[in-house]
Design brief:
With 239 residues, this protein is α/β, with parallel strands linked by helices. Helices cover 35% and strands 27% of the residues.
Length: 239
């Protein structure tokens, strides 16, 4: 019987490779975290700081640099960071150099609600608490505030994001009892009576046409109210 030395050599080589891999893996798992990096995405660290995240992790896990890699539960750390009311999303991973990196995406407010309770409305239409680190310059929401009217306000604000002029100039939305909406603009004294949220595209198209003409005629300051509540027309009330 002939011995197939090629198969034997391949088997021995495979065992050696598996052994080295197991040894390397065990050694890597027992290696401690070298450094903790906290990185903010998007608007940087406006509403919470590196120190806030670091304290949160210490409160939940102690000093992470004293833990070995095998004792690091990345999913649990992500959930701990995301439990903070200022955080939209967190991604935590280990680098080949032994650093633990936490990438944090903060929530983004798009309006400030001034009702019985005061809070932000965020980009997903959810309530967001104020931050002691930063105050956002966003439109002020007043009036008859409830779940339904805030849903309408969210539609108005999301529509305004598609138009640079509206984004720059709408500084307030007042909600009336009939779920009608009055818009306050930054540079003008008049109020825009939007009516309800039906047909926003047509209403704002009509408003832009009116604004361009009135600006050209230098007559914007003559008006007290500009109503878009009626179908396919702009109705103005003079001072």
């Amino acid at each position: 019987m002939r011995i197939n030395w090629s198969f034997i050599k391949m088997g021995v080589l495979l065992l050696v490779v598996m052994g080295l891999y197991a040894f390397s893996n065990a050694r890597n798992s027992n290696k401690k975290v070298e450094n903790l990096q906290i990185k903010f995405e998007g608007d940087q660290n406006l509403y919470m700081t590196h120190e806030t995240v670091n304290k949160l992790l210490i409160h939940n896990y102690g000093d992470l640099t004293n833990l070995t890699k095998e004792h690091i539960a990345l999913n649990n750390i992500e959930k701990a960071i995301e439990a903070n009311e200022m955080v939209k999303k967190a991604q935590v991973f280990l680098t080949v150099n032994g650093d633990l990196v936490a990438k944090v995406t903060q929530r983004k407010p798009i309006a400030r609600v001034e009702g019985n309770k005061k809070y932000y409305l965020d980009e997903d239409g959810k309530s967001m608490p104020f931050s002691r680190h930063h105050s956002a310059r966003v439109p002020l929401i007043t009036g008859e505030i409830n779940e339904n009217s805030l849903g309408d306000v969210y539609k108005i604000l999301k529509y305004s994001e598609t138009d640079e002029f509206l984004t720059k100039n709408i500084i307030g939305i007042h909600i009336t009892g009939e779920r009608k909406y009055l818009l306050k603009f930054r540079m003008e004294d008049f109020v825009v009576d939007l009516g309800n949220v039906e047909g926003l595209d047509k209403k704002f198209s009509n408003f832009r046409a009116f604004y361009v003409k009135a600006y050209k005629d230098k007559s914007l300051e003559d008006y007290h109210t500009v109503s878009l509540a009626f179908n396919n027309q702009v109705v103005c009330t003079k001072n």
